[in-house]
Design goal:
about 280 residues; five-stranded antiparallel beta sheet; 10 helices; alpha/beta; six-stranded mixed beta sheet; Rossmann fold
């Protein structure tokens, strides 16, 4: 593990029990990262979210997580107790879930919930926590933070909900942020705003970012490197700027399935899968 390595994962596996036997959701995942933006892309069910949740040990109790190492800042997470993990979650590693309105408590105002996140990780007064909450709401470019502070989750839009979740996850100032589909179901204008906020905060706070998404174009333009996953395995790892030069058949298939405004009128190609991909990887 290098001096600048923030996260180092060696042969991460996640297995779920099922009626027909064990299901290997993630198999032999290996990658390391520093203070950079890593994108993880692939189809639904490829293991992207499971990988993100496994890093924080946020999977159901029935799931079995094992690896040679999952090290964050030199600490092996898999050896940590649940009590020790509570000290890492939030202040060390934070995660923005897919739909913020289902992740927030519906009977508490968003301001109070962000305050709770700050109070859980800092020994400060309620007044200081409220001040920092308003500052963070302003940092994620929410107009009139005092008004939004008193709103309930059902009273905010999808884009504002994403900003609130980002504010909540970043207020403890973590070293690594895992963002799971943070721009899903948002229109293009709001997507760009959320990405600009993430880029600004990650750069300013000196954090690492794992950005989980289905959108290859978005990830290739926003991230530094991209991990392509299929059936719980890594197919290849490429520099984001070179993603469209990939020769791996799975990556090419995903890219070819993207609709283009200036494209022809032919039907989009169907992605063809090959079992041979499961036994070989092209790390690029």
């Amino acid at each position: 593990m290098g001096v600048d390595t923030l996260l180092d994962i060696k042969n991460l596996n996640v297995v779920f029990p099922g009626p027909k036997g064990d299901f290997h959701a993630v198999k032999d995942i290996c990658f390391s990262m520093g203070k950079e933006k890593i994108g993880i892309v692939g189809e639904s069910g490829s293991g992207k979210t499971v990988t993100g949740r496994a890093i924080l040990k946020l999977l159901p109790a029935a799931a079995r997580i094992f690896a040679d190492a999952v090290e964050f800042n030199g600490q092996d997470i898999l050896k940590k107790s649940e009590k020790e993990m509570r000290g890492i979650r939030g202040r060390g590693i934070a995660m923005v879930m897919q739909d913020p309105r289902y992740s927030l408590n519906p009977v508490r105002t968003v301001g109070r919930q962000i305050e709770e996140s700050y109070l859980a990780h800092r020994n400060v007064s309620q007044k200081e926590a409220a001040r920092r909450t308003l500052e963070m709401l302003e940092a994620v470019r929410i107009r009139d933070p005092e008004r939004v502070y008193g709103l309930y989750p059902h009273e905010v839009s999808g884009g504002m909900g994403q900003r609130i979740m980002i504010a909540m996850m970043l207020i403890p100032e973590p070293g690594l942020l895992i963002a799971d589909e943070p721009t899903s179901a948002l229109d293009v204008t709001v997507q760009l705003q959320i990405l600009a906020i993430l880029d600004d905060l990650v750069t300013r706070l000196g954090m690492g970012l794992i950005f989980i998404s289905h959108d290859l174009d978005l990830v290739s333009s926003f991230c530094d490197r991209v991990i392509i996953m299929y059936a719980g395995r890594i197919m290849e790892v490429r520099k984001a700027r070179d993603l469209h030069k990939s020769r791996h058949p799975y990556t090419r298939g995903l890219l070819n399935c993207l609709p283009r405004i200036a494209g022809n009128e032919d039907p989009l190609p169907t992605l063809k899968r090959d079992d041979a991909w499961l036994t070989a990887s092209f790390l690029g």
